[in-house]
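Standup notes
- DV: blocked on the single-chain target, sequence here:
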Amino acid sequence: MALFAVDALAEKPFRDEVLDLIRRDAVESWSAEDLLTWAVGKFHPRLTISASFGAPEGMVLIDMLHRIDPTTRVFVLDTGRLHAATYDLIDRVRDRYDKQVEVVFPDASEVESFVRAKGVNAFYESIENRKQCCQIRKVLPMRRYLAGVDAYVTGLRRDQNANRAETRKLAIDPAAGGIIKLAPLADWTHERVLEYVGQHQVPVNRLHREGYPSVGCEPCTRAIGPGDDPRAGRWWWENDEVKECGLHVHEESDGSGI
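- DV (later): unblocked, structure below
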């Protein structure tokens, strides 16, 4: 497995241990709970959960980490175009887990420049415009936020799409400056996620009951029909087989594995 951007770990006391675990794929046999417990002990309080509040995986991780350490941080990217149901779920998590969700916003001037130049819904016009919108509203804000932490947890699973098939449970993320990226649910199935949700009564986005397997920005997400691919409701006007916003584009090439 290739390792990239390790210079960011040069001054960290955990550098050698983490690199050794990655080289040996040592954590691939660990349970999600075991990996999270290790991560809390190693990185807290500079550990955070990346949760979209639009997919059940993130909610499972919030619940797991709350049981391990209730003070673990959680952040969400508020693009300014989220569904009302997503905002409602953020408030439910605040109440249920007594947790201060860190809401991360895009740079207002970058959004304004894009909208003035191309229009409010320019993302429908071309893949280039859509990716630029995602870059401004999601990718850049996330990179700015992650500059202040040592590690973050994502809900990526290998069977979500082809681009995530090589996701590792522990990796270095070069796109985020070389910090640690954890995907404790990488080897879980969707059915296992739902089983955990039911067993622990984990709150999830109410749009799942209306045919939304995942919930992103309101204008870029819609319900799907029986038998449709779970990602069919995301950017449905595009023909690309692998559709991503840009947050997790490095997994397939360098094993950085959200």
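- Follow-up: Confidence is low (pLDDT under 50) at residues 1-6, 250-258.
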